[in-house]
Amino acid sequence: MVIGTLTSDLRYGARSLVRAPLFTLMAIVTFALGVGANAAVFSVVHAALLSPLPYPDADRLVRVWPERPLSVREFIQLQQETAALSGVAASSDEVFTVGGDGPAEEVAGAAVTTDYFTLLGARPALGRLFTAGDSIAGADPAVILSHEFWERRFGRDPSVVGRRIAIGGQGTAERRVVGVLTPDFAPASFRHRVWVPVTIDPNDEVSYSHQAFLAVVGRLRPSIPVNQASADVKAFAARLRQQTPEAFSEALVARAGVVPLQAYYVREVRSTVWLLAGAVVFVLLIACVNVTTMGLARAAGRSRELAVRAALGASRRRLVGQLLVESAMLGLAGGLVGAGLGHLAAGAVAGRLEQLVPGMVVGLDWKVLAFALATATAAGVAAGVVPAIRASRPAAGPLRAGAATADRRRRLVTHLLVTTEVAAAVVLTAGAALLIESMRRLQVVDPGFESARVLSLRVRPQAARYPDNARLVAYYRDLLDRLASVPDVEAAGAIHLLPLAGGNVRVLYAVGGRPLAAGTPQPSANYRIVTPGYFRAMGIPLRSGRLFGPDDREGAPPVGLINETMARQIDAAGNAVGRQLVGDDGEVWSTIVGVVADTRQSSLYDESSPELYLSYAQAGEFLSSMYLTVRTRRDPASLADPVQTALRNLDDQVAVALVRPMADVVRESLNASRQVTGLFGLFAALALALGAAGVYGVASQAVAQRTREIGVRMALGASRTAVFSRATREGLAPVAYGLMFGLVGSFWLEPLLANRLFDVAPGDPVATLAVAGVLLLVGAAACMVPARRASRVSPIEALRCD
Hints:
By secondary structure, the protein is of the alpha+beta class. It is elongated and about 105 Å long.
C-alpha cells in the first residue's frame, strides 16, 4: 500500500515537474549549487577529520609530547617507562643528496628508529625493513626507498636492493639499499622518499643525550584512553625535569601528553575546515529559501488544481505528501548534479591538506555521494514544507475568478524568507570582505627586500666531496664568482635560510660590558649565515657601518651585521655599531660592524624580529645547504637555465632544488591565506547570486499578483514613476531588514576570523559599509526589473485579466 502510494506520487510528481520546465530547471540548479558547495567541503571534512589514517588501528596512534622533540637517550627512556603505550617510534625530517647515476638531486626523507615501519604497518615490496642492528654505531649504513622514488630514479630495477648508492646526509657518503616499500605505504610526510636508521651510540654524548631532534609516535594499548596515556607521559616528563631541570621548564612539563595522530596533523587547519563548512551551510540555507520562495509562487498558480483534487476527495494529508515527494525529487536531482560539481571543486577546497594528512585523498566516494544525496533530499523536503502546507489549505477562492488582491499572509511569509536569505548572504559577504581587505593589505606590505628580478634556488653540496667548512667556503666563493659572470646577472649572494621560505635558527646573546639585571631574560635573535653579496642581491639597504667584505674570512676577527630591530634592542637609539656580542664565558664571539634594514623573515603577518647575520667564511656551520639569490637585469625565470648550467659546470654532483623567482616565494607565503579568502569569497558570491535571484523572484511574484491593483491605480491617475517607486520600495523592504539582521549576525562570525586578519579589525567600518553598499545595490538591481515591468502595465489589459 505504502509502496503503491509512493510510486503513484513519484509518477504524479514527475509529470508535474515536466509541465513546469523553467521552475524545475531553476530549482535543480539552485539545489545543485548549494549541495555542490556542501559536498566539496564535506569531502574534505570526511577525508581529513573523519576518515582514519591509512595505518593499522590508526585510532590508537598518538603523537607523543608534540611541543618538544626528544633526544635518543630520552626516547629510549620513554620506551622503557611508559606503560600506556604498546609501542613507540621516532623520526626526524632530513634532506639527502642522491648522486651517482645521473645528475645529483635533493630528496626529502627521514631518519627513523628501527621499529618505525612496524608501528605504521609498512611492508617491503623488495628486500627488508630495518632491524635493530642497523641502528648500532658502526653498522653498515642502510637506506630504504619509497616505491615511487625507486621507480623514478632506478627504473624499477630489482637489483638495486643490496647495492650501494651515493646518498649524502648525516656525514655518510654512501648507503646500502636494504629495501623498497610497497606503493600503498603513506609516508608520515608526503615529501618523504628515503629513510635511514637513527644511529644509537651512547658513547657520542652530544648526539645521544643533548640533541633533541626526534618526533615521537606511539600506539595506545587496548582499552587505554588518551587522557590516561597523557598522564603517563606527563609523569615521564616530570622525571626528566628532575634529571635535567635546566632543559625542562615547569610550563613545558605541564604541556606534556599525547594527541591523537590525526588531530595532530590537522591541528593548523581544523578551524579553517570547520569555518568553510559553516559558510557552505549558509549557502545551502539560501538555496533552500530560494526554492521555498519559488515553490510558494508556483503553489499560488496551482491552487485551482489542488482545490479541484480536494473537492474530488483527496485529503489534505495526501496533498501535502504528494507535494513533498515532488519537492524531494527536485532535491534529489539537484543533489546528483551537485555531487558532480562538488567532486570537481573538492580539489580546490582541499588545497594543502593533502600535503598534511598522510594518505589523504579528496574525492567522490560513496560516503560523500550519500551525504550529498541525503542533504539534497532533506533540503528539498524542507524547502517544500511551507509551499505544500500553504497550497493544501482548503479554500473556495481558487474555484472563483482570480483574487483581486495579493494574500497578505503569503506576502508576509515570502518577505520573511527573503529577509532570511539576505541576512545569510550579508554574514558571508561581511566575512569575505574582511578577508579580502586583509589580503589586499598583506600584498602591499614591504618585506624589506626587493623581490622583483631576483632568482632563488637551493644548493646542497655532498659531504663526501666537501667534508669540511674550508672546502664548502671555497665552493660557494667559486660558484658566486661564476654566477657574477653570467650575462644579465647584476649580483649574486647566498643565505642559509631564505626569507619567507620557512625555517629558523635562534641564538641567545649578551652584549659585552652590559651585564643582565637579575631576573631579566637573556635577549635572543634569529641567526642567519650569508655571503657578502647577499644584501646587494636582495636589495637590502645598509643603515650604518659597513657590509661584509673579503677580509672577513676565517682567522680574522669575527664580525656580524644586525638589523634595525636588534640595534634598537641593544641600544634605544640604534647605535650598535662597534658593540661586541659575548658568550657565557665573557669571550667575544662577534663584533657588530653594520646595521641593515629590517626584513620579514618568517611571515608577512609578523613584524620584523631581531636578526643577526654572520659571514659564511667565519660561521663554521650551516653551510651544507645554502639558498642562492641572483639579481638579474631581466625576467629572473629566463635566467634559470643559464644559472643552473653554471652550477653544473662547476660540479654536477651538487643537488639543485627550489628554482623560482623570489616574487613567487613571496606569493607562495600567502597561499594558505589566499586560498581561504578565495573560497570564502566564492561562497559569498554564490550567496549573493542566490540572494539576488530570490529578491528578484519575490518582486516579480508581487508584481504578477498585483497586476489588477496596479492597473486600477494607473487608471485612477497614478503615474508610472509613482508605480515604479512604490514597487521598488516594497521589494527593498525585506532586503533592508535582511541587511540589518545580517550585519548584526556578522559580528558573531567576525571573531572567528580574527586570527586570519592582518591590520583589519572585526567590525571594520570600511568593510561594513562596503558590504552594506554592495547588498543594497544588488537588492535594488533585483527589484528594479520587476518594478519597471509594473510601471509599464496597461490599465486596460490589467482590468481585462482574470
